[in-house]
Amino acid sequence: MTVIVRDLRPESAADTEGFARVRHLALPYILFTSDSVRHNAVHMPPDARYRPLIAEEDGEVIGTAQVHLAYDSTEPGQGLLNIYVRPDRTGRGAGGLLLRAAEEHLAAQGATRLLSWVLDEPANRAFAQRHGYRDSRSAHFLRLDLAGTALPPLPRTPPDVELRTAADFADDPRPLFELDAQTMSDEPSDIDYEYADYDAWVEQYWKHPLLDRDLTVAACVDGRPVAFSVAYTDGAARYSTAMTSTARAHRGRGLAKLAKIHSLYRARAAGLTEAFTGNDAGNEPMIAINKWLGYEICATEVRHVRELG
What we know:
Elements: E1 3-7, H1 13-26, H2 34-43, E2 53-57, E3 60-69, E4 78-85, H3 94-108, E5 113-119, H4 122-130, E6 134-145, E7 161-165, H5 174-184, H6 198-206, E8 217-221, E9 224-233, E10 238-246, H7 255-269, E11 274-280, H8 284-293, E12 296-307
Parallel strand pairs: 4-5, 10-11
Antiparallel strand pairs: 1-2, 2-3, 3-4, 5-12, 6-11, 6-12, 7-8, 8-9, 9-10
């Protein structure tokens, strides 16, 4: 049996479905669908030099790699690669082949520093270390049983705050972009990000097929969103929080918690049964909010870094 690595073909349903299936089996805490895989391949900005790869064995997709430059970083030369192999297809060399192709691509695009998320499991960490990567920060995946866990009572909404959904901004999502751009720069990370291109944000994020505008809730003051909780859904029963944050001038009022619990109540009423979120291991305030909501840590991943040259 021979394993080969090649580029994903966005127009191929077999490729996008195979990619999503591998990611679901290897990393079930992040939502992936055939449509979302296709969207990412087609709408990632050109500066990202995005190259999704798949590993095949006898025509079956058994491994995947997301490979691109951190195009929205304030520091050039940052390369990102995330590699996952089906848990029942490891040991066939797919991971090594994907890693080599990913590193060669990023080096050719001028990357000088490579960053990869690795599940905090002995085999995964050993693989990264064998290939010259050192561990860095860690992050947790958290899960909430929406069907079987009682949510806390809804907190009181302050009189100067109005709760709205992303659907209310369908005609002009720029206020959400501005909030996202400000809060993204404050997220704990190995990379400093900066959102500056509104049109690219619309194509990549606002039009993302997993974004659920009816479940994405924003706390607004004077008509402007100042805190939000962004919801993704997979079209079935699963829900994921893509981002929860508050503008700097409005922190300390519990507005992110307010937006998130209202989003969860909406998700449960819509029939969703399983919710996921993720937090940097050092983001204690957000971890505390999620535990208050009933989330439990279900897995941990560790960022690994390799310097080139």
